[in-house]
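Q: I'm writing up a methods section and want to include an example of the input and output format. Could you take the sequence below and give the corresponding predicted structure tokens, formatted cleanly so I can copy it straight into the document?
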Amino acid sequence: MRRNLNAPPFRAAGIICVVAAGLLLDQKLPFGGQIITNIAVWLIFICILRHASRQEQVSLVACVFYATIGEIFLSLTWGLYEYRLGNIPLFVPPGHALLFMVGTALAPRLSDRLAWSVPLLAAPFVVLLSVTGSDTLGAPLFALLLLCMVFGPAKKLYATMFLLALAMEIYGTWLGNWTWSPHVPSLGLTTLNPPLAAGAFYCVLDLLVTATNAALERRRATAAAEVANVGNYGIGRQSGFARRSPRPTGEGAPERGAGTRLRDATVKAHNRTRISGALHPAAGSHPSASRRNPVPPSAGAEVRDRAMSRSYVKLDGQP
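A: Here is the clean output for your methods example:
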């Protein structure tokens, strides 16, 4: 049966081997080991980043960003630990991102009961080291782990990263890649090399990464909803304009009630014509203007006078 080498367990195993080999090269080859490790880790990180999903890409880039800030503060500024050459190796930030990928691949296989068993098993050792004064920094770091477990959204991931980080810290300090200071600067606390609860720093890193990813997802969802609302508003305006626009003459079915309005307009026009005719009669239409036979010019003056007198009598007799 052919196995998929890109499956999360095989990928996690490959990343663990690369990190372990890189730390070994960094320590055993004092002059070129760190350069080789830097190039190898970054090439693997970029290769994984190119083939990752969008959500994984955001998580990996955010992890490198926060890890770089954390390394600058914890190592160079606070002085909580120091690397072999007194610098921050270039493979460290992408190494944190690769370890984060290992944690995301293994965390889903963890049950809730097993995830909570991690802080329960670590609690007695943290209390013992704090009481004896060997690792008083462990108590606040363990409290930080509990806060992440209680209020964080990825409890399985925090428990997994706590164990992975402790294993890597033990391996790296054993090789001598970095060393924790026995006294915590400015706090007066003591610590081991490495601290038992050093994995709490990785839990905070994972919490920041998951919070950033969730915030970006919400922003993308909000932007998509706004674009959809703008599109619906534009479509509504277009449809409303189409409803208000007059229908061109001769196109489409006749408007409802057009026949009734045309009949009413015809009746009104007919009535206006009748009223106008009554107010302004045409020549010869009035009864008083009845046609008379003209009096011949050859008639005498007496005949013409009698004709005119009969016309005057007729006009005076009209109502």
